[in-house]
Amino acid sequence: MKVAVIKTGGKQYLVKEKDKIKVEKLALEPGKKVSFDTLLVADGDKVEIGSPVVKKAVEGIVKRQVRGRKVAGVKYKPKTRQAKSFGHRQYYSEVEVTAI
């Protein structure tokens, strides 16, 4: 089984073929193809490590654009009775890995 480590959005992901992963939002519409920088490719005992990247690219298809769960927070200033709550929902792209 082939596995690869890819880099996108400042994060690294361990993927196999037909995996669905959520990555930082990509500026692509659903159905478009995307290729990622590949840091490592492993096929059984055979391992290729890039310096910084491997020439083989991992390809995938953007399935949909989604938003994550809401993260709530509070800003509080003591002694002044000031409290302000806020929330944030991060945008993600769901990608299905098609080829390594």
Structural account:
With about 100 residues, the protein is an all-beta fold. It has strands spanning about 1-10, 10-15, 20-25, 35-45, 45-50, 60-65, 70-75, 80-90, 90-100. It is about 0% helix and about 65% strand. The strands form two sheets. Strands 1, 2, 3, 4, 5, 6 and 9 form a seven-stranded antiparallel β-sheet that branches. A two-stranded antiparallel ribbon has the order 7-8. Strand 1 (about 1-10) and strand 2 (about 10-15) form a beta hairpin. The model has no long low-confidence stretch (mean pLDDT about 95).
SSE blueprint and pairings:
Blueprint: E1 2-8, E2 11-16, E3 20-24, E4 33-43, E5 46-49, E6 58-67, E7 71-77, E8 82-88, E9 91-99
Roughly what is the average pLDDT, rounded to an integer?
A: 93
What share of the residues lie within helices?
A: under 10%
Name the poorly predicted regions: none
Beta content comes to over 45%
Question: Given the structure, what is the number of helices?
Answer: 0
User: What is the C-alpha radius of gyration, as a whole number of Å?
Assistant: 19 Å
Which structural category fits the helices and strands?
A: mainly beta
Major pleated sheet: 7 strands, antiparallel
Form type: elongated
Distance between the termini: 10 Å
SSE arrangement, N to C: EEEEEEEEE
The total number of structural domains is: 1
- Work out the number of β strands: 9
